[in-house]
Amino acid sequence: QSIRESNTPTTVAMAMTSGSKDVAAPDVELDEVGPSGIYLVEDNTPTSDRGWELQVEALKARGITKGLTGGELLEMLSTDDSNITIVDVRETASYERGTIRGAISVPLFRLITGWTPFKAARRAQFALFGQVGTEYNPDFLRDFNAKVGPYRDNLLVFVDDNAVGTLTPSQFFPNGKCCHSLMACYLTGIKGFADCKMNHIDGGLQGWVQAGGGLVPPEDF
Question: Which of 6, 8, 19, 199 has an alpha carbon within 20 to 30 A of 172's alpha carbon?
């Protein structure tokens, strides 16, 4: 079967396997959490300037210095001897509307649940900007381990819908720009997957589509 006809998660390529070595069980519990339940980076929220700077340092220390373009991923997917697993970290509803063929859904965030005063206030904050409120998905690490763990020897490529998320520095953003796909790279890396080859798609799904990549509903693969 070709990659595009396969019913298994997309695997594309780079002969970057870790071999048959013993791997410690991933840690699915967060060490530090903020009031919203999201992980902290040395007491900083991951989207703060300092929190993002620390994550970028950690990613670069693991060799993740530049994202893949949509065109680069398309070219990699065209080879039959590749091993890549695509991980879609968007909310479930977005994934179900269309994703890269074979992508595994592991949402980093979910719609806000419950009606505590704090969560009601967060909903109101989002509503001010015409957005639907989301929160960190507390099952993310557990779901990632269960769904993606079997493919840890592949190159793991994370994707979200952030068109500007990148590790590439610019004049006003020396550390690039934060996005969910890179946050997922960081978090899974410190929680048992540091030995895995990872990257993300610069430009998110928009970059993939602009490069000629298609989106399909998950029931079609």
Answer: 199
Helix-helix angle 180-188:140-148, to 10 degrees: 80
Work out the angle between the directed axes of helices 49-61 and 180-188 (0-180°, nearest 10): 60
- Two structure tokens written together for 202: 């610069």
Q: How far apart are CA 148 and CA 145, in angstroms?
A: 6
Query: Residue written as tokens 């968007």?
Result: 90
Instruction: Tell me which DSSP letter residue 162 carries.
Output: -
| Those residues with Cβ within 8 angstroms of residue 71's Cβ, 6 or more apart along the chain or in another chain | 211, 212
Rg (CA), the chain: 17
Read off the pTM. 0.86
Torsion of CA 41, 43, 45, 51, to 10 degrees: -50
If pLDDT is split at 50, 70 and 90, which confidence band does 23 have? low
